[in-house]
Amino acid sequence: MSFFNNKVVVVTGGSDGIGKALVEALIALGAKVATCGRNHDKLYHLQLEYSNVMLHTWACDVSNEQECQGFIESTIETFGGIDILINNAGVSQRGLFLDSATEVTRRIMDINFMGTVYCTKYALPSILERRGTVAGVSSTAGYRGLPGRTAYCASKFALQGWLESLRTELMYSGVNVMWVSPGWTASNAL
Ligand SMILES: NC(=O)c1ccc[n+]([C@@H]2O[C@H](COP(=O)([O-])OP(=O)(O)OC[C@H]3O[C@@H](n4cnc5c(N)ncnc54)[C@H](OP(=O)(O)O)[C@@H]3O)[C@@H](O)[C@H]2O)c1
């Protein structure tokens, strides 16, 4: 039997790209999956492929704390709790700092970093009860600064530092905290 069988797994940003591939793989392994995204149509088409018993979808912009709270609470109401949270939702960047408005940096930090903070905040009590896992989808850009990606790199550095601190805080709680750093992956973002 798969490790994921009957586990409740939240994947943020599961309507496209890496997140969608995760949703499909996890459901195939027997998990109950909840996912979110901003675009209702993409979520609707994903939901059509699976029954409500296997997949819960919710429109949510992870840069909005109240929407994250609503998504996590609706997941707990639907599936009874959360075992694993995969903070995947993210946006990329192409543009030199000199040519970019500072608002670009704020927006990328709000989605890639604060989105993880918000979702983890509301999911953690349930994950603690179940001794589950909090994961972040980082990048090689979380280890090295890259030209044209100042804000993206900053958001991934922040993500990793935050998760490493959280891991230490939760060291004796039974909760796993981890991040993964995929290489270049064909998707909408890149
Ligand atoms: N692709 C790569 O080469 C690569 C490499 C390393 C790391 N990563 C990381 O992997 C993650 C996924 O990237 P991807 O390439 O799969 O991206 P993608 O194909 O663009 O998919 C992004 C997913 O996240 C959702 N999303 C974006 N902004 C959101 C927001 N504010 N609130 C809620 N959902 C949001 C999108 O749905 P909506 O647009 O409908 O909101 C979509 O479902 C990101 O964290 C990225 O930094 C990607």
Write the layout of secondary structure elements.
Elements: E1 8-12, H1 17-28, E2 32-37, H2 40-49, E3 55-59, H3 65-79, E4 84-87, H4 102-130, E5 133-137, H5 150-169, E6 176-180
Parallel strand pairs: 1-2, 1-4, 2-3, 4-5, 5-6
Helix pairs in contact: 3-4, 4-5
The structure holds NADP nicotinamide-adenine-dinucleotide phosphate.
The site of NADP nicotinamide-adenine-dinucleotide phosphate has 31 residues, from helix 1 and strand 2.
Describe the structure.
The chain has 190 residues and is an alpha/beta fold. It has helices at residues 17-28, 40-49, 65-79, 102-130, 150-169, and strands at residues 8-12, 32-37, 55-59, 84-87, 133-137, 176-180. The protein is 45% helix and 16% strand. Helix 3 (65-79) runs parallel beside helix 4. The longest helix is centred in the middle third of the chain and has 29 residues, at 102-130. Residues 12-19, 36-39, 42, 60-63, 88-91, 111, 137, 139, 182, 184-185, 187-190 line the site of NADP nicotinamide-adenine-dinucleotide phosphate (NAP).
Task: Return Rg in Å.
Answer: 16 Å
Structural class: alpha/beta
Number of helices: 5
Overall outline: globular
How much beta, percentage-wise? 15-25%
Give, in spatial order, the strands making up the sheet with the most strands.
3-2-1-4-5-6
What hetero molecules are in the model?
Answer: NADP nicotinamide-adenine-dinucleotide phosphate
Write down the secondary-structure element order: EHEHEHEHEHE
Sheet with the most strands?
6 strands, parallel
